[in-house]
Amino acid sequence: MNGDMLIVLTLALVSLPIRFYHFQDPPEVVFDEVHFGKFAGEYINGTFYFDVHPPLAKMLTALVAQVFSYNGDFDFGTIGNSYLGSSVPYAEMRAVCVLLGVLLVPASFVTLRTGGHSAPAALFAALLVLFENSLSTNSRFILLDAYLLLFTAWTLLSWAMFLKHRNTPFTLEWWWWLSATGFGLGCAVSCKWVGLFTIATIGCSTLYHVWGLWGDLRVSKISFFKHFVARIICLIGLPIAIYVFCFYVHLELLSLTGSGDSYISPHFQHSLVGRDIIETPSDVVYGSIVSIRHLGTNGGYLHSHASNYPEGSKQQQVTLYPYEDENNLWRILKANSSNESEEVQHDILGSDNKTWLQYVRSGEMIKLEHLITRPRKLHSHNEKPPLSDEESYKEVSAYGFPDFDGDANDFWVVKTIGEALESRIQALQSQFQLIHTLQTCALYSGNKKLPDWGFGQQEVACIQNGKIPKTLWMIEQVAHDLLPLEKTRMTSYPRYSFWQKFKELHGLMWRANNDLKESHPYQSRPSEWLMLVHGISYWERDGRHIYLLGNPIIYWTVTVTVFIYMILSFFFKLRQQRGVAERFQPDLLQFYKRAAGFYAMAWAFHYLPFYLMGRQLFLHHYLPALYCGILLVGVSVDLVLQKFKWKLSQWIFVFTLTAIAICAFFNFAPLSYGLPWNRESCIRSQWLPYWDFGCERFSTIGHFANPNPKHAEL
Ligand SMILES: *[C@@H]1O[C@H](CO)[C@@H](O)[C@H](O)[C@H]1NC(C)=O
Ligand SMILES: *[C@@H]1O[C@H](CO)[C@@H](O)[C@H](O)[C@H]1NC(C)=O
Ligand SMILES: *[C@@H]1O[C@H](CO)[C@@H](O)[C@H](O)[C@H]1NC(C)=O
Ligand SMILES: *[C@@H]1O[C@H](CO)[C@@H](O)[C@H](O)[C@H]1NC(C)=O
Predict the structure, then answer these.
(1) Every domain range in the chain assigned CATH 2.80.10.50
(2) How far is the CA of 38 from the centre of ligand 1 (A)?
(3) What DSSP designation does 129 have?
(4) Whole-prediction pTM value?
(5) Distance from the CA of 41 to the center of ligand 1, in angstroms?
(6) CATH class of residue range 278-492
């Protein structure tokens, strides 16, 4: 084992300069540092933001930033913004990612050694990890993948350790490595949901081994039960606890209102500090002035303003507006009474002791008069709305003139959901539809934003046969001069509990993930990752280009190995079925089958599910699968090495293979590190026609050393 220690140390020492080379360069925002750098600032400011990824890796990034005294004020707006002169400790933040990337190298070695594989094979895999361009590039910047990959690698390592101790159950080491596996799973899935694939991998392996235990008659039923419960606690309970805890810390840190407000429901918003507390009477009577919120989207309040639609009826616009504003105020009137005071029911006596007020009830017909532009009223008619094109959508406008009382197209029936007909409408509680009786449509809003003439506000329409959630509204604030406050209950938004926030965030994250549909110039499909068809441009300036491209030799080797594995396992199955004797010793064969099977399964679990995702995908989504694939290559090489008689020839074989990968690594290094390159080498390196790193940006030999061509011309 001492020899191994030496190798691990040497690996780490060799990796450090290779991975840290020029890591501060460029001192500018690169690729998704735009997002993850900004989020670090949000944690430091404590302002709420919304993102599709779970928070652990982002919180760790923020922690590093905080420790190195970042004050949160840098504008990460676009790729290429310069860090120089700002308080962003970008070098330290990157250094942590690089360090995590470095740790991946010894981790792969230890994982294979723990699994019982030979030192040359394990070293080979570790060197492939070290000299893999995309693993290197991706861990040089402030991104989440370095954290995710290390937690994934840690999980695989711990699991290998656990399996090594599986014959001495319930000892300290056994418990330690079982919990370490669960810890890794929890952390991985708290960085990105991709960690679920790691959970699936370990889950399948666990089932396989538990099934084996069940078949082992030396294990009593009680003992089997203990085994089972231990795994449930460590591999399911622990990861869930870590995941939930991360969200708890996340929400505690982001207690102030911020850029994420517009994504979340009003209840959630009002649980953040810095929002005005809304206190409103809960009773709604005719003549009240109300603001009405859309519930199906987080688009805001029913709104109108003194601008007309440029097309359709050319009447006044009605939109959704996310912020509080006096143009959100509407007066509720009875629909077809021309003289209100005559017909009111005597529900509640006004504070002047003589006017009777009537509650608004479900099923009644109302008009909504826009307070600022009165007597314009909420109106719908048989016109096409500005954006929604289908037949079932009708335009909604604000319509009316002085001396004109309006027409029946101003009438809306209030229909509560989940409450009895004729129940009273309550502010901040009753959820209702507004049904237009003449057009038989319901007031609706989707997530469509109007163009400039509508100030980018959200379209409101009236929809026939719409789904209920997007036609739901709620009265948020009520005011009436005569409402006797001593006789009505005041109400405000209930504060959301942690679990309500947790649940809402997950719904939003899930939807946001699926909505990432628009195409991106550097996106790629899973089928293209196998052959490394596309890369991703991370940053470029003055004849330098950082371009995420894998080491093609390693990508192709992994792919070929996976396919050979599949063919061979099928072939062995065929032979086994016919009872053909193998030349390998059965134990040895079993050992390699199990090891290769595990890593092939890990590769498949981290790769195949991407085919089911409709969202935009990128090459870096393949990296966890690639890591598993490299371990599979290590196992396969170990099997091949069994054929070599002499130890020395094993080493020679391994170093020859490694040398090829290293050559390829250095060939593409200018793209990985963003170093100056020359056009001739670039064109020679254009092995696949789709690699769009753009050789024309590099100068031809003779000029290439000058990083700033403008000066050369002067
Ligand atoms: C944090 O607060 C500072 C100062 O108020 C502000 O300039 C900066 O934009 C905020 N950062 C983020 C990420 O919102
Ligand atoms: C309003 O008029 C309609 C028909 O025009 C009638 O059916 C309805 O009962 C009237 N509602 C009220 C509150 O008077
Ligand atoms: C409404 O009825 C009241 C009482 O009957 C009367 O004083 C008032 O003038 C009427 N208003 C209108 C607009 O007809
Ligand atoms: C209304 O009546 C109550 C008690 O009957 C009295 O306290 C209050 O001052 C009266 N308000 C007005 C405006 O007359």
Answers:
(1) 278-492
(2) 9
(3) H
(4) 0.84
(5) 7
(6) mainly beta
